[in-house]
Large ribosomal subunit protein uL30 (Sphingomonas gei), 59 residues
Amino acid sequence: MATIKIKQTGSPIRRKSDQRATLIGLGLNKMHRVSELQDSPEVRGMIRKVQHMVEVVEG
């Protein structure tokens, strides 16, 4: 199955608790951390929820 790499570019400070939880679920929670996950609709939805704090490095 395909994988997707995402990098955190925004801080979770002063964000809603559900957005913080989404970052933790993606394997992120600190600035500039990179996580490689399976490319699935669930992961895509999580990325969309915090799209202002992450960027896709490779797809």
About this structure: Strands lie at 3-8, 34-38, 54-58.
